[in-house]
Design goal:
Layout: H1 2-52, H2 60-76, H3 79-89, H4 97-110, H5 118-137, E1 140-142, E2 145-147, H6 149-158, H7 162-177, H8 180-195, H9 202-207, H10 214-246, E3 256-257, H11 280-284, H12 289-302, H13 310-315, E4 334-337, E5 344-347, H14 354-373, H15 388-401, H16 405-410, H17 422-452, H18 461-473, E6 475-476, H19 492-496, H20 502-523, H21 536-546, H22 554-562, H23 569-585
Parallel strand pairs: 3-6
Antiparallel strand pairs: 1-2, 4-5
Protein name: M2 family metallopeptidase
Organism: Paradesertivirga mongoliensis
Keywords: Disulfide bond, Glycoprotein, Signal
């Protein structure tokens, strides 16, 4: 009995002391959050300006980015904040789960900006901005005539003359050359800043956001590469033979010359194929760029998501600049949560075609994720995706759903009841989703791992890039590309979204799992022929994933929502009928890719 009384007294005492500790932690978190929101909103506003209005020779944006970036870094990296968060975490078990997550986030953010190396942080902020300005302020030229990236993309998509394709491809890579020194410098600055808080390198730091080590992430990514390889190998052989014929080449090359493919980095080959009766491009051509974005909003609204706020339309930068604008903007699509509250914006250069239709759906996925986790239950510090891949998956999932026949029929984008070739449709999708895996999980991820964790020497950047492209994607440059070029740096993310590209590979795997679940268990439809439009149950399913943001663990979210762990099986099942078809097409053709990677 006495023991019980002691136990009771102990419990009351520890409950009280828990409450005290929680109060102390909460007071720190409240104070931190307030300042964090103020400083991050100011930095986001400066970044927005620097990405939407790049004026040659004008350093106003740069100065503002540096000033606000430094203030944000000084606060988030302050030794005092780090110490307080660490001290509070020593009594982790007394705190609520939400508090622990926020404190860990504070320490994670700090590692990018530690006060102890504030000079390095300042140099990095400056270097990051200079790199972005160079990348997006670049003037692309073909035959000495200025062209936009949209124009280069159109040539790579449609042009049959190989000489013209080569010029467009080469023009698209020119930007990389001038970015090499900046990349070498940024690699060092990024590595050194996170090393001050005991991460081995910047790659390890970014991967740790998933709760994984570099080795664990590489194993996971490698597994996906291996699982997708048999399908990719068939697609690769198919593309070599089909394209050789299309371009009138008597000889079929063992590896695909990069300028043969309809994308600057060979990451999406879907434009190789048109599907009769499903050619949305011909319909979209007749619409306006505004219509494309509105149509995306309409899709989300039909699932029960709200309208986009008026400020989205007022403040976003959605369309290409007129040729005489006198300034440039970032030409790569993105979505922004400016103030971690209701100011959401997108930066795009939408034109009325199927690529931008898909990209617009993708960006709206980010925007609706922002809007959904901005709620009373999710503290601003945890207003992020369950993990970064989830953030990418939402909009890509809607992009996939927006290309399926029953949806297109319901929306009047194709004639109802039109006869279409299902295998050809599946082929077009595989040339997008399956082709992307060796690029994202192979070339990009391996290159960045070598860059940050392997200290890749600058005189091997281009050799390494093309070695990986050949190994994973089976592509080769049109002609030897020496180290005077830096083709990796022509890819946006290498410069301004460093060491995170595996996010996209994981997002594709995740989205097929979610899609499979939605099709089979909610819609009771064939995953290859769904119509999400107007289905509130689908909307609720997505909202439930989005609502908690990062306040729930990502692996439990997937398990809870789909009943399974991360797995490529739904993606492989989806394309299963295509493998047989490809094997028949490829009979007698020479495979050049190894069976496994
Ligand atoms: O960068 C993007 C989005 C913005 S988050 C347009 N994506 C990757 C890319 O373009 O390389 C979407 C899929 C892959
Ligand atoms: Zn995205």
């Amino acid at each position: 009995m006495k023991k019980l009384i002691y136990l009771f007294a102990f419990l009351v005492f520890s409950a009280c002391s828990n409450k005290e500790k929680q109060k102390e932690a909460q007071s720190f978190l409240d104070q931190y959050t307030k300042e964090y929101m103020r400083l991050s909103a100011a930095a986001a506003e400066a970044e927005w300006g620097a990405n939407t209005k790049i004026v040659e020779g004008d350093s106003t944006n740069a100065r503002l980015v540096e000033r606000t970036g430094e203030a944000f870094a000084a606060f988030t990296g302050s030794s005092e904040n780090i110490e307080t968060a660490k001290k509070l975490l020593t009594e982790e078990s007394d705190l609520t789960e939400l508090q622990v997550k926020q404190l860990k986030k504070i320490i994670y953010i700090a590692a990018d900006n530690p006060e102890t190396v504030s000079d390095l942080v300042k140099q990095r902020i400056k270097a990051e901005n200079a790199q972005t300005e160079k990348l997006f302020g670049f003037t692309f030229k073909i035959d000495n005539k200025e062209v936009s990236t949209n124009e280069i993309d159109a040539i790579l998509k449609d042009e049959k003359d190989l000489a013209k394709r080569l010029k467009a491809w080469e023009a698209s890579k020119e930007v990389g050359t001038g970015l090499k020194t900046g990349l070498v410098n940024l690699r060092e600055l990024r590595n050194k800043t996170v090393q001050a808080l005991d991460y081995k390198n910047y790659f390890e730091y970014q991967v740790s956001d998933y709760g994984l080590t570099t080795e664990e992430m590489m194993n996971l990514i490698q597994r996906l590469n291996k699982e997708l390889r048999p399908l990719y190998r068939e697609l690769h052989t198919y593309a070599r033979y089909e394209l050789a014929q299309k371009y009138g080449q008597a000889e079929v090359p063992d590896y695909l010359p990069a300028h043969w493919l309809p994308n600057r980095w060979a990451q999406d080959w879907s434009a190789m194929v048109t599907v009769e009766g499903m050619n949305t491009d011909s319909v979209l051509k007749t619409k306006s760029a505004e219509w494309i974005v509105k149509d995306g909003e309409d899709f989300y609204k039909s699932l029960g998501f709200p309208s986009l706020p008026a400020s989205f339309w007022q403040k976003s930068s959605l369309y290409p600049l007129p040729a005489n604008a006198g300034y440039k903007k970032n030409n790569h699509a993105s979505a922004w949560h400016m103030d971690l509250q209701n100011d959401v914006r997108s930066l795009m250069s939408v034109e009325p075609n199927s690529e931008w239709h898909e990209t617009s759906n993708h960006e709206l996925g980010h925007i609706y994720y922002y809007m959904t986790y901005t709620n009373k239950d999710v503290p601003p510090l945890l207003r992020e995706g369950a993990n970064r891949a989830y953030h990418e998956a939402m909009g890509s999932l809607m992009g996939l759903a927006s290309q399926q026949k029953p949806y297109l029929e319901a929306k009047g984008l194709i004639a109802p009841g039109s006869k279409t070739d299902e295998i050809r449709s599946l082929l077009k999708e595989a040339l997008n989703y399956a082709v992307f895996i060796p690029f994202s999980a192979g070339t990009m991820t391996e290159f960045e791992k070598e860059l940050y964790a392997g200290n890749l020497p600058p005189d091997k950047f281009n050799a390494k890039w093309w070695e990986l492209a050949k190994k994973y994607q089976g592509i080769v440059p049109p002609a030897a590309r020496g180290e005077e070029y830096c083709d990796a740096a022509s890819k946006t993310h290498i410069n301004d979204d460093a060491a995170q590209y595996y996010d996209y590979a994981l997002s594709f795997i995740t989205l097929f799992q979610l899609h499979d679940h939605i099709a089979k268990n909610i819609l009771k439809q064939n995953p290859r022929a769904t119509n999400y439009y107007g289905n509130k149950e689908v909307g609720n399913f997505l909202k439930e994933i989005m609502y908690p943001g990062a306040s729930k663990d990502w692996n439990s979210v997937l398990k809870e929502k789909t009943g399974s762990e991360l797995s490529a099986k739904p993606m492989l099942d989806y394309f299963e009928p295509l493998v047989q078809w490809l094997k028949t097409q490829n009979k007698g053709r020479k495979h050049t890719l190894s069976e496994s990677v």
